[in-house]
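name: query_chain
kind: protein
chains: 1
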Amino acid sequence: VSIILSVYNQEAFLSQALDSILSQTYSHFEVLIIDDGSTDSCDQIIKSYKKKDSRIHCIHQTQHGVVDPKNLGIAQAKGEYIGLLDGCDRMHPRRIELQLKTLLDQSTTDIVYTNIIRINDKFPLLNQSKCLEFSQEDLYAQLFSEEVIPFIGSSLMGKRSCFLHEPFSEVFHQAREYECLLRLARKFQFTYLDLP
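structure:
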Protein backbone atom coordinates (compact mmCIF):
# COMPACT_ATOMS: atom_id res chain seq x y z
CA VAL A 1 0.00 0.00 0.00
CA SER A 2 1.22 3.47 -0.88
CA ILE A 3 -0.36 6.53 0.71
CA ILE A 4 -0.04 9.64 -1.47
CA LEU A 5 -0.11 12.77 0.70
CA SER A 6 -0.39 15.98 -1.32
CA VAL A 7 0.82 19.06 0.54
CA TYR A 8 0.84 22.77 -0.19
CA ASN A 9 1.27 25.33 2.64
CA GLN A 10 -0.67 23.22 5.17
CA GLU A 11 1.64 23.55 8.17
CA ALA A 12 -1.33 23.93 10.54
CA PHE A 13 -2.70 20.50 9.60
CA LEU A 14 0.23 18.45 8.32
CA SER A 15 1.29 16.90 11.64
CA GLN A 16 -2.27 15.73 12.28
CA ALA A 17 -2.45 14.22 8.80
CA LEU A 18 0.84 12.37 9.27
CA ASP A 19 -0.07 11.23 12.79
CA SER A 20 -3.34 9.79 11.47
CA ILE A 21 -1.42 7.80 8.85
CA LEU A 22 1.23 6.54 11.26
CA SER A 23 -1.45 5.49 13.77
CA GLN A 24 -3.08 3.05 11.36
CA THR A 25 -3.86 -0.47 12.58
CA TYR A 26 -2.39 -1.77 9.30
CA SER A 27 1.28 -0.84 9.18
CA HIS A 28 2.75 -2.29 5.96
CA PHE A 29 2.69 0.83 3.80
CA GLU A 30 4.81 3.66 2.47
CA VAL A 31 3.94 7.35 2.63
CA LEU A 32 4.84 9.46 -0.38
CA ILE A 33 4.53 13.14 0.47
CA ILE A 34 4.36 15.36 -2.58
CA ASP A 35 5.20 18.90 -1.48
CA ASP A 36 3.93 21.15 -4.24
CA GLY A 37 6.23 24.10 -3.51
CA SER A 38 5.19 24.97 0.05
CA THR A 39 6.62 28.24 1.37
CA ASP A 40 5.63 27.72 5.02
CA SER A 41 7.19 25.30 7.52
CA CYS A 42 5.92 22.11 5.80
CA ASP A 43 9.47 21.18 4.81
CA GLN A 44 10.68 21.22 8.44
CA ILE A 45 7.66 19.20 9.57
CA ILE A 46 8.25 16.62 6.84
CA LYS A 47 11.96 16.33 7.72
CA SER A 48 11.15 15.73 11.39
CA TYR A 49 8.71 12.93 10.52
CA LYS A 50 11.14 11.35 8.03
CA LYS A 51 13.70 11.08 10.85
CA LYS A 52 11.16 9.21 12.99
CA ASP A 53 9.78 6.80 10.38
CA SER A 54 11.57 5.22 7.42
CA ARG A 55 8.26 4.58 5.61
CA ILE A 56 8.00 8.32 4.86
CA HIS A 57 9.44 9.66 1.61
CA CYS A 58 9.10 13.13 0.11
CA ILE A 59 9.24 14.59 -3.37
CA HIS A 60 9.46 18.37 -3.70
CA GLN A 61 8.32 20.15 -6.82
CA THR A 62 7.66 23.72 -7.86
CA GLN A 63 4.10 24.77 -7.11
CA HIS A 64 1.72 23.42 -9.73
CA GLY A 65 4.60 21.87 -11.55
CA VAL A 66 4.28 20.12 -14.88
CA VAL A 67 2.89 17.01 -13.20
CA ASP A 68 -0.08 17.03 -10.83
CA PRO A 69 1.20 16.14 -7.31
CA LYS A 70 -1.02 13.06 -7.02
CA ASN A 71 0.09 11.77 -10.43
CA LEU A 72 3.72 12.22 -9.45
CA GLY A 73 3.16 10.22 -6.24
CA ILE A 74 1.22 7.47 -8.00
CA ALA A 75 3.97 7.14 -10.64
CA GLN A 76 6.63 6.78 -7.91
CA ALA A 77 4.57 4.50 -5.65
CA LYS A 78 5.73 0.95 -4.95
CA GLY A 79 2.40 -0.32 -3.64
CA GLU A 80 -0.17 -2.22 -5.65
CA TYR A 81 -2.87 -0.19 -3.88
CA ILE A 82 -3.02 3.60 -3.56
CA GLY A 83 -4.64 5.57 -0.74
CA LEU A 84 -5.11 9.30 -1.28
CA LEU A 85 -4.95 12.02 1.37
CA ASP A 86 -4.50 15.77 1.31
CA GLY A 87 -2.30 17.57 3.84
CA CYS A 88 -5.32 19.12 5.57
CA ASP A 89 -7.15 15.79 6.04
CA ARG A 90 -6.95 12.89 8.49
CA MET A 91 -7.59 9.16 8.32
CA HIS A 92 -9.73 7.00 10.54
CA PRO A 93 -7.32 4.65 12.45
CA ARG A 94 -8.64 1.55 10.62
CA ARG A 95 -9.04 3.09 7.17
CA ILE A 96 -6.14 1.33 5.45
CA GLU A 97 -6.90 -2.02 7.12
CA LEU A 98 -10.58 -2.01 6.18
CA GLN A 99 -10.24 -0.56 2.70
CA LEU A 100 -7.50 -3.05 1.85
CA LYS A 101 -9.59 -5.92 3.24
CA THR A 102 -12.50 -4.85 1.04
CA LEU A 103 -10.26 -4.70 -2.05
CA LEU A 104 -8.79 -8.14 -1.32
CA ASP A 105 -12.11 -9.80 -0.36
CA GLN A 106 -14.15 -8.43 -3.25
CA SER A 107 -12.32 -9.25 -6.46
CA THR A 108 -14.59 -7.08 -8.63
CA THR A 109 -13.91 -3.96 -6.54
CA ASP A 110 -11.36 -1.52 -7.97
CA ILE A 111 -11.76 1.48 -5.65
CA VAL A 112 -13.19 1.84 -2.12
CA TYR A 113 -14.64 5.10 -0.77
CA THR A 114 -15.75 6.09 2.74
CA ASN A 115 -17.68 8.75 4.62
CA ILE A 116 -16.02 12.01 5.64
CA ILE A 117 -16.21 14.26 8.68
CA ARG A 118 -15.77 17.96 7.99
CA ILE A 119 -13.66 19.74 10.60
CA ASN A 120 -12.89 23.44 10.96
CA ASP A 121 -11.20 25.64 13.54
CA LYS A 122 -14.38 27.08 15.08
CA PHE A 123 -16.36 23.86 15.28
CA PRO A 124 -14.14 20.79 15.82
CA LEU A 125 -16.66 18.36 14.37
CA LEU A 126 -18.77 20.42 12.00
CA ASN A 127 -20.67 17.54 10.47
CA GLN A 128 -20.30 14.07 9.17
CA SER A 129 -21.04 13.59 5.51
CA LYS A 130 -22.69 10.21 5.34
CA CYS A 131 -22.14 8.65 1.98
CA LEU A 132 -24.61 6.24 0.53
CA GLU A 133 -24.03 2.99 -1.24
CA PHE A 134 -24.87 3.43 -4.91
CA SER A 135 -25.02 1.01 -7.78
CA GLN A 136 -22.27 1.74 -10.29
CA GLU A 137 -24.75 3.47 -12.64
CA ASP A 138 -26.27 5.54 -9.83
CA LEU A 139 -22.83 6.49 -8.52
CA TYR A 140 -21.84 7.91 -11.90
CA ALA A 141 -25.16 9.76 -12.16
CA GLN A 142 -24.78 11.09 -8.60
CA LEU A 143 -21.47 12.69 -9.56
CA PHE A 144 -23.42 14.80 -12.06
CA SER A 145 -25.95 15.83 -9.41
CA GLU A 146 -25.79 19.42 -8.21
CA GLU A 147 -26.91 18.38 -4.73
CA VAL A 148 -23.96 16.37 -3.44
CA ILE A 149 -20.74 14.72 -4.54
CA PRO A 150 -20.89 11.21 -3.04
CA PHE A 151 -17.22 11.13 -1.96
CA ILE A 152 -13.96 13.05 -2.09
CA GLY A 153 -10.52 12.02 -3.29
CA SER A 154 -9.12 11.84 0.23
CA SER A 155 -11.50 8.98 1.05
CA LEU A 156 -10.33 6.74 -1.80
CA MET A 157 -8.15 3.66 -1.86
CA GLY A 158 -7.84 1.68 -5.04
CA LYS A 159 -5.75 -0.37 -7.38
CA ARG A 160 -2.74 1.59 -8.60
CA SER A 161 -3.53 0.46 -12.13
CA CYS A 162 -6.81 2.44 -12.04
CA PHE A 163 -5.08 5.69 -11.17
CA LEU A 164 -2.38 5.08 -13.78
CA HIS A 165 -5.06 4.43 -16.41
CA GLU A 166 -7.09 7.52 -15.46
CA PRO A 167 -4.63 10.07 -14.01
CA PHE A 168 -5.53 13.47 -12.62
CA SER A 169 -5.87 16.02 -15.40
CA GLU A 170 -3.07 18.46 -16.11
CA VAL A 171 -5.62 20.70 -17.86
CA PHE A 172 -8.52 21.10 -15.38
CA HIS A 173 -6.70 22.95 -12.61
CA GLN A 174 -9.79 24.08 -10.67
CA ALA A 175 -11.74 20.84 -10.87
CA ARG A 176 -9.11 18.22 -11.60
CA GLU A 177 -10.15 15.93 -8.73
CA TYR A 178 -13.82 16.06 -9.69
CA GLU A 179 -13.04 15.47 -13.36
CA CYS A 180 -10.83 12.51 -12.45
CA LEU A 181 -13.54 11.04 -10.21
CA LEU A 182 -15.97 11.18 -13.14
CA ARG A 183 -13.59 9.21 -15.35
CA LEU A 184 -12.79 6.70 -12.62
CA ALA A 185 -16.47 6.11 -11.79
CA ARG A 186 -17.24 5.58 -15.46
CA LYS A 187 -14.61 2.88 -15.95
CA PHE A 188 -14.03 1.15 -12.61
CA GLN A 189 -16.05 -0.60 -9.91
CA PHE A 190 -16.46 1.44 -6.71
CA THR A 191 -17.47 -0.04 -3.33
CA TYR A 192 -18.74 1.95 -0.35
CA LEU A 193 -17.29 1.32 3.12
CA ASP A 194 -19.30 2.74 6.04
CA LEU A 195 -16.39 4.34 7.86
CA PRO A 196 -15.88 8.00 8.77
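note: The chain has a mean pLDDT of 86.
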